[in-house]
Design a protein that fits this description.
Bound molecules: 3-hydroxy-5-(hydroxymethyl)-2-methylisonicotinaldehyde
Radius of gyration: 17 Å
Number of strands: 11
Distance between the termini: 16 Å
CATH architecture: 3-Layer(aba) Sandwich
Number of helices: 9
CATH class: Alpha Beta
Structural class: alpha/beta
Helix content: 25-40%
CATH topology: UDP-N-acetylmuramoyl-L-alanine:D-glutamate ligase
C-alpha cells in the first residue's frame, strides 16, 4: 500500500509516555501518516499517579467523524488503544464503517489491564463489551491479563504451557474472526515474548527475548504502535510481531539507567533510530 493513512483512536495522557504520545512519534518514525482521535485528555496516565484530570471527549467523536465524512477523508487503517466507555466503543464501530476504506485494516489493542489486574476505571462489564467490540478486527493485541478478562477465565501469571497459549489465541481469534498477537507470554522465567496466531495459516509463531525484570508502563502501547506501523509497511504478521518485540525491549533497556526517576514510562525516544534502521531495505 502506497502512503497509507492510519487513524489511531486512544487517549492523550499529557504526561507519562503512553497511548497517543507514544503512537504518534513511533508511527511517524516508521513513515506512516497518522491521524488521531483522542478519546479523552488526562493530565497523566492512571498507572501510578493520583489526582489526574480526565476530560471525556466521547461526544466529540461523532462530530469529528461527520466532518471527516463531509471532507471525504478516509483511512486505510484504524488502530485503537485505551478506550474509556461502552459508548465510545459504539462510536468507534461507526467510524470504522463510515470513515475507513471498505478494506481498511482494523487493529485493536484491547487495553484494560496488566499483571492480572484491570486498570483504574475498568470492570468486568467493560471487558464483556470489549469482547463484543473485537468482532471484525483484523488483528487484536491483548496481553495475558486482557486475554483472561476477554475469555472470562482466571489469569495465570506462570506455569502454563504451549497448548494453553494456543487454546487462548484460537479462542481469542474466535472473538474477532482475525489474527491475534498475544503479548506477555512466558514459558521460562528468563524469557518473555509473544505468540502470533495467523488465522489464514492456522499457525502460531512465537518470539521471545531475555526478560528485563520489573514492569514498565506504556510498553503495550509501544508494542501495538510498532506492530501496526510494521504491518502498514508491508511486513507479515510474524515479522511485525518480532520487530515490535525487538524495539520494545530496546526501549526498556534505554530506560534502565534512569529507572528510579523514569518510573512512569519507557524512554523509547533514544531507541527510535534503531527502529528506523530496522526498516531500511
Ligand atoms: O498504557 C495504557 C494506558 C493508556 N492510557 C491511560 C492509561 C493506561 C494505563 O494505565 O492509564 C490513560
Amino acid at each position: 500500500m502506497k502512503n497509507p493513512k492510519l487513524l489511531s483512536i486512544q487517549d492523550i495522557s499529557c504526561f507519562g509516555q503512553c497511548s497517543l504520545t507514544v503512537a504518534l512519534p513511533v508511527l511517524s518514525a516508521m513513515g506512516i501518516e497518522t491521524a488521531i482521535l483522542p478519546s479523552a485528555v488526562l493530565s497523566t496516565h492512571t498507572g501510578g499517579f493520583t489526582g489526574f484530570t480526565f476530560r471525556d471527549l466521547t461526544e466529540d467523536i461523532p462530530l469529528i467523524s461527520a466532518h471527516w465524512a463531509k471532507e471525504h477523508i478516509t483511512f486505510d487503517a484504524v488502530y485503537t488503544g485505551y478506550i474509556g466507555s461502552k459508548k465510545q466503543l459504539e462510536y468507534i464501530k461507526e467510524i470504522v464503517k463510515n470513515n475507513a476504506k471498505s478494506d481498511a485494516l482494523f487493529i485493536v489493542d484491547p487495553v484494560m489491564g496488566d499483571n492480572g489486574k484491570l486498570y483504574h476505571g475498568f470492570d468486568e462489564e467493560f471487558a464483556s463489551e470489549m469482547a463484543l467490540f473485537l468482532r471484525g478486527a483484523n488483528v487484536i493485541l491483548p496481553n495475558m491479563t486482557e486475554a483472561a478478562y476477554l475469555l472470562k477465565e482466571p489469569y495465570l501469571a506462570e506455569g502454563y504451557d504451549m497448548p494453553y497459549v494456543e487454546s487462548l489465541v484460537r479462542r481469542l481469534s474466535g472473538l474477532s474472526g482475525g489474527d491475534v498477537v498475544l503479548t506477555g507470554v512466558s514459558f521460562d522465567r528468563d524469557k518473555l515474548g509473544v505468540a502470533a496466531y495467523n488465522k489464514t495459516k492456522d499457525s502460531v509463531h512465537y518470539y521471545f527475548e531475555e526478560r528485563v525484570s520489573g514492569s514498565f508502563h506504556g510498553t503495550g502501547d509501544l508494542y501495538a504502535s510498532t506492530f501496526s506501523g510494521g504491518l502498514l509497511r508491508g511486513l507479515s504478521l510474524e515479522d511485525a510481531a518480532d520487530l515490535a518485540v525487538d524495539f520494545t525491549v530496546r526501549a526498556i533497556r534505554e530506560t534502565l539507567p534512569d529507572r528510579e526517576e523514569h518510573w512512569y514510562g519507557v524512554a523509547f525516544e533514544s531507541a527510535l533510530p534503531y527502529l528506523i534502521k530496522r526498516l531500511q531495505p
